[in-house]
Design brief:
Helix content: 25-40%
Strand order of the largest sheet: 4-21-6-16-17
Number of helices: 8
Oligomer: single chain
Distance between the termini: 18 Å
Shape: elongated
Length: 512
């Protein structure tokens, strides 16, 4: 058949040429942009997946930048704390030097006090000057704020707490095991020593006992007729050396309770009767395991049989904090979890009773760092940085009085000119411990939390970008092959179209 009004062959060639041109254009676009998906029509499902992966990669990249910024903040805080630590070490030396009273003149003591005052002022200046982009780091700006502190809480420290936006967190303690001191009872059956009627001039009529604790031991000797109150006073004279205190106990004050000065399994009391001197009495008794003030009569060891050392150790508090088993030492309980890191010291009465305690409520504060791509409480890391001003560090309690590093200043109770140097050194030692603990927490935060996060996020970022690349980026080997194919097909189709357009002219041969 030969028709000229409709050239079907040409139409077919045009369609195929258009398709080949479209393929050629697609290959050229992908090779020029490097992308397999440039618009939704290229691959709708692939575009959705790649956009999600691209957003996730951007979040991960920013989280890595956040972690690096957190490391910089910690570095600056560490620099300030390192300077404070050096000043406290120097302060320790000045206190020890001034305690050498027989070798120092009054003028030298005054000079040492001037140095101490200067150190205290410098510590305060460092605390207020250490900052990152104008944000002060060591003045308590990043410490936690708490409310409703229960009277059973003797002291506490919030090291970290994740809070939701404008949220709070209640901290509750359940005591599951009482804290106890090491304790023994010396039962004499009377208010004074009765050495079987021996005369006070008899050399053998001496009651010789060795009292020991974590600090050391002392051997004490008493004669017949010595009152138990006098024995208590003598034992307490050496409390600072032995770590053991004594009180009158039992019915009618006929016994002496020996207790370690602190609570916990590291504390103990030991008794060794070197010479019983024929003393009358029940002997050395333990206290019951459940009640540290109820003597266990079945445990009595006669004084005559107490030549081998008898020892009783204390017991650490057992507790849970917000349902988490706490690590305990003495009356102090601590948990360290991703959401809450607190340390709580209970009062003596609270640590001995198996009761629940609503300790306090965390209402805000802390330094929060977003170390994950998703902005939620799980991706946030929180750390508390306390105030290192001299009025806040070195807290120490003794005989009902509370001290801080500021009490070492001129005119204060622990100044080195006429103050209590023993307590001054305790305060300085506590301040050194406070700063070292804070530096340790910041160091662990940098090394473990930030360092591990950067490494982990780096791997996640690489894998996410790789996944997005597989979906969206063009494969140049494939696209180059497609380009060559499309070029050949376009040339071929162009030639075919030319032949198709020329075909109707064959009709002219039929017209002669």
């Amino acid at each position: 058949m030969s028709r000229i009004n409709t050239n079907v062959t040409s139409l077919i060639a045009q369609r195929i040429l258009g398709n080949n041109n479209q393929s050629l254009t697609t290959s050229l676009e992908r090779l020029s942009t490097g992308l397999k998906i440039s618009r939704g029509k290229d691959e709708p499902a692939g575009l959705i997946a790649s956009e999600a992966l691209r957003a996730e990669a951007r979040g991960l990249g920013q989280a890595v930048a956040n972690a690096e910024r957190a490391d910089q903040v910690a570095n600056i805080a560490e620099g300030g704390l390192q300077e404070v630590s050096g000043l406290l070490t120097e302060l320790q030396g000045l206190v020890t030097q001034t305690a050498n009273t027989a070798g120092l003149s009054a003028a030298e003591k005054q000079a040492n006090q001037l140095q101490i005052d200067s150190i205290l002022q410098t510590i305060d200046r460092v605390a207020s000057a250490t900052s990152f982009q104008g944000i002060k780091l060591l003045n308590g700006n990043f410490d936690y704020t708490v409310d409703a502190v229960d009277g059973d809480v003797a002291a506490f420290r919030v090291n970290g707490a994740k809070l939701t936006y404008q949220g709070t967190r209640d901290v509750n303690v359940q005591v599951t095991q009482s804290a106890q001191t090491g304790a023994l009872l010396l039962s004499f059956g009377g208010t004074q020593l009765d050495l079987a009627g021996a005369g006070t001039d008899d050399p053998a009529a001496r009651f010789v006992i060795e009292i020991g604790g974590v600090g050391g031991s002392r051997e004490l000797s008493f004669s017949s007729g010595t009152t138990l109150a006098q024995i208590v006073d003598t034992i307490n004279t050496f409390t600072d050396v032995t770590g053991v205190s004594a009180t009158l106990s039992a019915a009618g004050n006929t016994g002496i309770r020996l207790s370690s000065t602190a609570y916990g399994s590291n504390e103990f009391v030991s008794v060794k009767v070197t010479n019983d001197g024929g003393v009358v009495g029940d002997g050395v008794l333990n206290y019951t395991a459940g009640q540290n003030y109820l003597a266990d009569g079945a445990s009595a060891v006669a004084f005559t049989a107490a030549s081998n050392r008898i020892t009783d150790s204390g017991q650490d508090l057992g507790a849970t904090i917000n349902g988490i088993n706490a690590t305990t030492v003495g009356k102090v309980a601590r948990i360290s979890t991703d959401f809450l890191d607190v340390e709580i010291e209970l009062s003596t009465d609270a640590s001995e009773a198996l009761n629940p305690i609503s300790a306090f409520t965390i209402t805000g504060g802390g330094a929060d760092f977003q170390l994950a791509g998703n902005v939620d409480i799980g991706g946030k890391v929180a750390i508390g940085i306390g105030n290192v001003a001299v009025r806040e560090i070195g807290r120490y309690s003794s005989n009902g009085s509370n001290y801080t590093l500021s009490n070492l200043g001129a005119g204060s109770s622990l100044n080195v000119v006429d103050g209590d140097l023993s307590k001054a050194q305790e305060v300085v030692s506590k301040a050194i411990s406070d700063i070292s603990s804070l530096r340790g927490r910041l160091g662990a935060f940098q090394k473990n939390t930030v360092g591990a996060t950067i490494r982990s996020l780096g791997v996640s970022l690489e894998n996410t970008v790789a996944a997005e690349s597989i979906i969206r980026d063009a494969d140049f080997a494939v696209e180059t092959a497609n380009l060559t194919r499309s070029q050949i097909l376009v040339s071929s189709a162009t030639q075919v179209l030319s032949l198709s357009n020329a075909q109707p002219q064959n009709v002219l041969s039929l017209l002669g």
